[in-house]
């Protein structure tokens, strides 16, 4: 089986991406990050998903981005609540973590190189997304070019690194349907940026609202959407 590094936050998109990589015949090496995020509960979800989907190995790296701050997820900045989907796409929100996907992909590339793996899976989405610049196809294409300039295997021409973003042009409803077809247990996943009592979805942040919209449009009930 070819090896692939799969970035896994424990959210709906990254979990679907891992399930898809497994279906496509990859031995999946799941990579998660404890980066000082407000919603650290997602790491528990990532561990559940990695175990349930049979990851060959699951590594969680600690990179404390609170040292830099600059985001509602890593600093003392309020998480926006109750925004319309239209307003989410206007500008870059305060929940954007500076250079996060660049950092995560660089670490995934390092692990892939040691594994002699040519494939990296990332669950970014450019349709139902919250204005993040590092979720755009242009960024992914640029990073893939960089990756092939930066690795020993790439320079020697032995293999070419491929960044897979199978969800990038899907709506959130499409992702929910795909995840259902793949047999993903939605109850294992986590999406909320600002958990209530550290354990329950707030239901009002951008991530919660986009998730709810996706499930509603897909006609599928979200098992974690009705927690107290």
What features would you describe in this structure?
With 228 residues, the protein is of the alpha/beta class. It has a single domain (3-218), classed as HUPs (Rossmann fold, 3-Layer(aba) Sandwich). The protein contains 8 helices and 5 strands. The protein has helices spanning 12-23, 42-52, 85-88, 100-115, 137-150, 152-156, 172-181, 206-218; strands at 3-7, 27-34, 57-62, 119-121, 162-164. Strands 3-2-1-4-5 form a 5-stranded parallel β-sheet, with helices on both faces. Helix 1 packs across helix 7 (172-181) and helix 7 (172-181) crosses helix 8 (206-218). The longest helix has 16 residues, at 100-115. The chain is globular and about 50 Å long. The N and C termini lie far apart (43 Å). The model has no long low-confidence stretch (mean pLDDT 92).
Quick summary of this structure?
With 228 residues, the chain is an alpha/beta fold. The chain is built from 8 helices and 5 strands. It has one domain (3-218): Rossmann fold, CATH 3.40.50.
Question: What are the key terms here?
Answer:
about 35% helix; about 230 residues; 5-stranded parallel β-sheet; 8 helices; alpha/beta; Rossmann fold
Q: CATH topology, which one? A: Rossmann fold
State the CATH superfamily name: HUPs
Broad structural category: alpha/beta
Count of helix runs: 8
Dominant shape:
globular
Extended strand count = 5
Helix residue percentage: 25-40%
């Amino acid at each position: 089986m070819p090896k692939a590094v799969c970035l896994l936050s424990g959210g709906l998109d990254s979990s679907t991406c891992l399930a898809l990589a497994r279906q496509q015949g990859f031995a999946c090496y799941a990579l998660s990050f404890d980066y000082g995020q407000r919603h650290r509960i997602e790491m528990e979800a990532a561990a559940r998903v990695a175990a349930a989907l049979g990851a060959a190995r699951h590594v969680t790296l600690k990179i404390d981005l609170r040292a830099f701050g600059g985001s509602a997820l890593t600093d003392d900045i309020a998480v926006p609540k109750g925004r319309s989907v239209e307003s989410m796409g206007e500008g870059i929100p305060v929940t954007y973590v500076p250079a996060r996907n660049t950092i995560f992909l660089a670490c995934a590339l390092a692990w892939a190189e040691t594994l002699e793996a040519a494939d990296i899976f990332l669950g970014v989405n450019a349709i139902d997304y919250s204005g993040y610049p590092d979720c755009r196809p242009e960024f992914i294409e640029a990073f893939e070019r960089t990756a092939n300039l930066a690795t020993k295997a790439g320079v020697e021409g032995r293999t070419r690194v491929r960044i897979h973003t199978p969800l990038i042009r899907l709506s959130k409803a499409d992702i929910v349907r795909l995840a259902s077809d793949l047999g993903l247990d939605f109850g294992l996943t986590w999406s909320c940026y600002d958990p209530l009592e550290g354990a329950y979805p707030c239901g009002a942040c951008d991530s919660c609202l986009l998730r709810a919209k996706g499930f509603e449009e897909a006609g599928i009930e979200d098992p974690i959407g009705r927690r107290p």
